[in-house]
Amino acid sequence: MARYFNGKEVELLAPVGTFEIFKEVIQANCDAVYFGGPSLNMRLMRKGYNFTREEIVEAVKIAHSLGKKVYVTVNNLLNENELDEARDYLQFLDSAGPDALIVQDFAILELIKEMDLSLTVHSSVMMNVHNIEMVKALQDMGVTRVVASREMDLQNTRYLQAATGIEIEYFVHGDMCSVHGANCYFSSMVFGMSSNRGKCMKPCRWDYRIKKDGYVYPAEYPLAVKDMYMYENIPELIHGGITSFKIEGRMRDTEFVLMLVNAYGDAIDRYIADPIGFERTRESKLLFENRKRDFSKAYAFGRPGLSNINKRYEGTGKFYSTGKVFSTPTAERELSEKRVTDIRGKLAEVRKPSKAAAEVSVHVNNVAQAKAALAAGADHIYLSGDVFEPDHAFTRAEINELAEIKGKAKIYLCLPRMMDELQFEMYEGLIAGERLPIDGIMVTNLGAIHKFANAGYPLIGDFNLNVYNRISAEFYHRHGVERLTASMELPLNDLAALLDHTELPIEAIVHGSPAMMYMEHDLYENTEVFQPIGEEENHFVSNNILVMKTDKGENPVYRDVHGRCHLMMTKELNLMPVVRELIEAGLSVFRIEGATYKPEQLQQIVSIYKAAIANPDTAEERFAEMNPVYAGYTLGALQFDGGDIGKSRGMEDMDAEVKKEPASV
């Protein structure tokens, strides 16, 4: 089965969670289905869902007999212990013959190549594809379709498709996320449950108070976005270069999925048959009356602002109308001596000292911070590509000024996490012109690597490349990245395994308040649209910084010069107590996230780490002298051991308020 409009294929792609649901949906008005198998996909938390190997084989046969397609999600990030499982599973899938795999981790692409398999690959939305350079890089690797970033509008999809010819898959209906794909680490830091590995505990649907300038604003659920709804915009989707119209909902029941498939399938058919006389709203009332949350067109036509945020309780931390709580506001864990002992014991199993002396890197937001870090002896200075307001982006004159005083230290120009076509042209103009007095570039996405790998500057990979295993590390190295930052959400066992198995230089964030959420959504708009309902000072940051508060803590939110928001940790990451063990495990560079510190605070922190790395025997003593700038110290993701897709071993003392029901999304 295939649909075409003016020679362009139009595919309606339906979600199915179980084989029983599949048998009903595949007979309905869709062209293709997608589902997960027994492992390595992001919907493993709900028991009884996903397909067995035998069901995958049968589903492919049934779909193909009807002229329809099957896509299997192999869209988890893989830890070291899952690589052999991935080899076996990919070998099976190659024999089962699905039409494509939907993939997040580049290790899957590398394994398919290594094993000489004939599997077709589509990039998952978790690859966060958002620029032409990224698409070109993926095409070079044989990827035939990309699931566009949720923040990509239809004007950009049309431009991207015309420039590359790639097939684009686009979410048209269902549950969305308020954070850029694979750029949310909140669940990992609080629960030890990685959202990038399908374990998200939905902190975006908690009840928050928003504070700024000493006032409280009435934004109860400021991150709880509405469901995507593009039923009335079939013409714009086709005109926007979309090949596959994707419905979200692998955890939905049969009746709900069938309702969506039949409504969207009928609308597509009616438009193809009579585009001028097309009736946009025929089933709008049906879909609205059976909605799970209120509807939004999200970013399809540009930034939606507060209209994208759900106000009804069904869109919060509750399960629709059942009233059951999935997770409640939970504090980041305090650093404890018992946990430090556990970490030391695990890291001691990895004896792989770095070939060179360990060094300190510092990510800074302005020149004053950079000078403070240099004065304290920092070895590497990262000039932010996402500078927080009210500071401005680093100028060429400031780069030259820092280069003159850096001494033996190295200075790097960081690129923004998300880069649109204008930003690529701007940075190309800067980098391709007169040589900058920098020692390298920090890259944040595959497109930037593809674009600047041959620009004559060494490349350093940032933490949001989400390196979880040695194969993905080797993938980035093969494409020109000299040093990689480990994913910020690696729990203890996975960080130890990465250090143990990877020969490449690895950097890790060891101190600071790194961003747990990175989003296009502008939370500051709440303070510009709503009238305050109370007065309350911020406790740990100045009042001009927006804070999202629960009874468990305050999360500062910084807006950068591109208008994007960065939600930070409540507490301050501090790995000083395990400096010795990290050095002995082979960590090459200890990174301090310094963008939110005053220069004098940053200088002191850098000095302490430099001294501790030079003499690890003094680390405990130096830690005892440190005082947190924010709401206490935490060990971040190292608070948790990691492990199976279910409850990790570090979670047994989780807040009793957290319920164990699976996410119904």
Protein model, in words:
This protein is an alpha/beta fold and 665 residues long. It is built from 21 helices and 28 strands. It folds into 3 domains: 8-176 and 226-307, Aldolase class I (TIM Barrel, Alpha-Beta Barrel); 184-224 and 515-568, no CATH class; 352-514 and 574-639, Aldolase class I (TIM Barrel, Alpha-Beta Barrel), CATH 3.20.20. The protein has an 8-stranded parallel barrel. An 8-stranded parallel β-barrel has the order 14-15-16-17-18-19-20-27, surrounded by 4 helices. 54% of the residues are buried.
How do you describe this structure in short?
By secondary structure, this protein is α/β, with parallel strands linked by helices. The protein is 30% helix and 18% strand.
Instruction: Please count the helical segments.
Output: 21
User: What gross morphology would you assign?
Assistant: globular
Number of domains: 3
CATH architecture of the largest domain: Alpha-Beta Barrel
Helical residue percent? 25-40%
Radius of gyration: 24 Å
Number of strands: 28
Level-1 CATH class name of the largest domain: Alpha Beta
Pfam families: Peptidase_U32
Protein name: U32 family peptidase
Organism: Paenibacillus lutimineralis
InterPro entries: Peptidase_U32, RNA/ubiquinone_mod_enzymes
